[in-house]
Amino acid sequence: MKVVVLFGLLGAVLGGMSLDDIRSGFKRLDMNNDGTVRTNEVTEFFNRIDTNGDGFATLEEFKAYLPADVPQAKLQGSFKFYDKTDGEDDNKVSREVASKVFDNLDLNDDREIPFEEFMQTYPLMKAAIAKEILALSA
């Protein structure tokens, strides 16, 4: 059953995200609702997860930030993706990951991510997360 759920999740991500899914991801990062994500907003998003303010997000902080109904495999796979993004697989995500995520989403390197640009890059990041979820379940 777990494999069926995971393949369904991977199919949903790789098969194309809905516009509502992309819009929801964008709204989480566009803190001031001006239609453009900037570096300070991604940093603020990270700071909301890092509740103890030590510059690192732990799995426990990550779990506390997400809705309670997020499946465990999705939670752990997502966290593992961000943990690896900081260059160290050490069970904590450094603040620098916020900058790296921003850079990956900023297609034209102009330090701003309008929704149209986010629509192109966000599904790619979600696909990489889905691969991490599958790897943990294998």
Q: Can you characterise this structure?
A:
Helix 1 packs antiparallel against helix 7, helix 3 crosses helix 6 and helix 5 packs across helix 7. 64% of the residues lie in helices and 9% in strands. The N terminus is likely disordered. The strands form two sheets. It has a two-stranded antiparallel ribbon. A two-stranded antiparallel sheet has the order 2-3. The protein contains seven helices and four strands, in the order ααβαβααβαβα. It has 138 residues and is mostly helical. The two termini are 13 Å apart. The protein has a single domain, classed as Recoverin, domain 1.
SSE arrangement:
Elements (H helix, E strand, L loop, with lengths): L1 H13 L4 H11 L6 E3 H11 L6 E3 H7 L6 H14 L6 E3 L1 H10 L6 E3 H23 L1
Antiparallel strand pairs: 1-4, 2-3
Helix pairs in contact: 1-7, 2-7, 3-6, 5-7
- At CATH level 2, the architecture is Orthogonal Bundle
What's the level 1 CATH class? Mainly Alpha
Reported for the largest beta sheet, the result is:
2 strands, antiparallel
Which structural class matches the secondary elements?
mainly alpha
Which sequence of SSEs, written as H and E, runs from N to C? HHEHEHHEHEH
Q: Write down the Rg.
A: 15 Å
Give the end-to-end Cα distance, rounded to a whole number of Å: 13 Å
Structure annotation, total helices? 7
Q: Unreliable runs, pLDDT <50, ≥5 residues?
A: 1-15
Range of strand content: 5-15%
Number of self-contained structural domains:
1
Count the beta strands: 4
Domain EF-hand: 37-72, 93-128
GO molecular function: calcium ion binding
InterPro entries: EF-hand-dom_pair, EF_hand_dom
Keywords: Signal
